[in-house]
Amino acid sequence: MNKVLVVEDEQSLLEIIQFNLELEGYSVTTVSNGREALKMKNQLDQYNLVILDVMLPEVSGLDICRAYREESAVPIIFVSAKGNTIDRIAGLKLGANDYLPKPFDLEEFILRCSVLAQPIKKQVVVPSEIRIGNHRVMPVSFEVENLISGEKQELSKREMELIQLFFTRKDEVVSRDEILNTLWTNDQFPTGRTIDNYILSFRKIFEEDPKNPQFFHSIRGVGYKFTLPD
C-alpha cells in the first residue's frame, strides 16, 4: 500500500484530501503544523509521496521542502493558494516534483498523486536508435529519418532530450512540471505551454494523423504519455 504524508493546516481541506486518498487505497499520515512536519524529515523513507502546503504555521512549506530534499528523493507535490509563475518556479527549484494551485480539481489532484507515487522502476537504457512508427530517431546525430521516404531532418538538443525522456518513461504519465524540472535549469523560465509546443512539433513529425495521435498523448490537466503500439 502506498503511504502519503499530507502537510496542510487548513483542516477542512486536510480532511477532504485524506478522505479521497484513502478512497483510492492510500495510507495517509496528516500533519497541520510546519514545525511538526520538519521533525519528520528522518522518516521520509516510509512514504511514497509528500503533499505539502506552502503557507504553514511556524515553518513554511518551502523551508520544509528544502530540508526534506537534504534527506530524501521522495516525490513532493506543493499545494498552495500562491499559484503564480514565480511561486511555482520557486517551489520547483527547491526540488518539488509538482505544484498545484488552490483551489484544484480533485480528480486532477488524485491523478497527479498516482503519477508521482508509482514505484521507481529500473533505469531504462536509451538505445542508439529509437523507432517511432515509420521513423528512426538517432540520438547521436540528432536526426530523424522517415523510413518510407528516406528523408532526414535534424532535431534540436532539447527536442532529442525530450524524446529520450519520454522513451525512458514509456507508457507512464509524465507531468509538465516534472518535464520542466528535469530538462530545464534554474536560470531558465519556461512554462507548460513550452512543452505543449514541442509535442505539437513531434506530432507533425511522427504521427500520421496529428489530431489522433498514436504516440504522444495528452493527459488533460496533467501532462503527456508516450506509447509505442505493438
Give a structural overview:
The chain contains eight helices and twelve strands. It is an alpha/beta fold. It folds into two domains: 114 residues, 3-Layer(aba) Sandwich (Rossmann fold), CATH 3.40.50; 97 residues, Arc Repressor Mutant, subunit A (Orthogonal Bundle). Strands 2-1-3-4-5 form a five-stranded parallel β-sheet, sandwiched between helices.
**Whole-number radius of gyration?**
19 Å
On the 0-100 scale, what is the average pLDDT? Answer: 88
CATH C-level class of the largest domain: Alpha Beta
Look up the CATH topology of the largest domain. Rossmann fold
Tally of discrete structural domains: 2
Strand count:
12
Question: What would a concise description of this structure say?
Answer:
The protein has 230 residues and is α/β, with parallel strands linked by helices.
Features:
230 residues; Rossmann fold; Arc Repressor Mutant, subunit A; four-stranded antiparallel beta sheet; 8 helices; 21% strand
